[in-house]
Design goal:
Elements (H helix, E strand, L loop, with lengths): L3 H26 L4 E2 L2 H7 L8 E5 L2 E7 L5 E7 L8 H12 L9 E7 L2 E7 L6 H4 L12 H20 L15 E3 L5 E3 L4 H4 L6 H4 L1 H4 L5 H6 L4 H17 L15 H10 L16 H14 L10 H9 L8 H4 L30
The structure holds adenosine-5'-triphosphate and magnesium ion.
Organism: Erythroxylum novogranatense
Pfam families: Pkinase
Keywords: ATP-binding, Glycoprotein, Kinase, Membrane, Nucleotide-binding, Phosphoprotein, Receptor, Repeat, Serine/threonine-protein kinase, Signal, Transferase, Transmembrane, Transmembrane helix
Amino acid sequence: MFTEEKWFSCFGLLKESRTRNLKVAEEIGSNNVRMFSFNSLKSATMDFHPSNQIGRGGFGVVYRGILRDGNKVAIKCLSAEESTQGTQQFLTEIKTISNIKHPNLVQLIGCCVEANHRILVYEYMENNSLATALLGSKGKHIAMDWPSRAAILLGTANGLAFLHEEAEPHIVHRDIKASNVLLDAKLQPKIGDFGMAKLFPDNVTHVSTRVAGTLGYLAPEYALLGQLTKKADVYSYGVLILEMISGKSSSKVAFGDDLLVLVEWTWKLKKEERLLDLVDTELTGYIESDVIRFIKVALFCTQAAAHQRPTMKQVVEMLSKDVNLKDNVFDRAVHVSKTISKSSWKLHALDTDPDITQMLPR
Ligand SMILES: Nc1ncnc2c1ncn2[C@@H]1O[C@H](COP(=O)(O)OP(=O)(O)OP(=O)(O)O)[C@@H](O)[C@H]1O
Ligand SMILES: [Mg+2]
């Protein structure tokens, strides 16, 4: 039975935790993150009107919103079921993420933590995501020439290299895919959702609840053994390169008579020395050697043995410099259809030097 005393101590605890949360919120408010009231976001989205819904992902629904100052934002309402994390921990994580700034990462503007609402407010990206712009239905499709595709890939690689090597603490994204690469009005790419892995405990991540949806991007050691390292992101990034070059979605399209997935298909084309067959038929006027270099980088990234994949910093170097990537490595590389053996093959990426970090201009 609840005595009066117990009521008071219970109330005392609640009050104490609310005061603590308010303190964190105030602290956050004085940082780069704005605390929004639920009502302000409600009016920004016209009461979360369906016409303002831009999409739905594993974490909840995303709305377009216009703030009172006229700024356009993307408002992501995290589904209640998955947002059971304590308010304070949630706010602390947001503080970390909001302090991470890079031109190729979507900026978190603020959040709303009221009752059981957990809402994130991001800068609005005019051209939605690569999933809609490049791989989406005809109506939303944006024609992209090779220079734009190459620039998007390089920008994305830069963003990921920053998360892996410069952000404090270092961040493994875990869900690199076309719908998480957003495009601004000038088609500059920005990686979204890079803090989501931090905002949820392991057992409620999108990946573990909807593996099938992102399987086309998952590194074998992560999908099968749950081993998560930066190299899992590198693998997914390799898949993204192949999607950008082929204009086809890795998780939706099967290739050839054997209905191979995109990565397998590319390895097959490599073996048959017809890599350029991968290229999107909509893509004309590209420099063949450039495209081939990008495909080779994708092959390096999608090797089955994680330790053989390059780091994202090395990827940036390989993509941005006109280097000659040695490709006889691929005859020896164990790729995804084979067993995930702890292969001792050493990656010889470049023509004259076995060290992948040493780039030799052609
Ligand atoms: N900042 C933003 N600006 C514009 N559109 C956005 C923004 N953030 C997300 N979107 C769009 O909202 C949709 C849903 O995004 P969301 O991140 O919730 O799901 P997803 O990327 O499909 O899957 P995941 O849950 O794995 O991230 C996507 O199509 C995305 O393009
Ligand atoms: Mg997303």
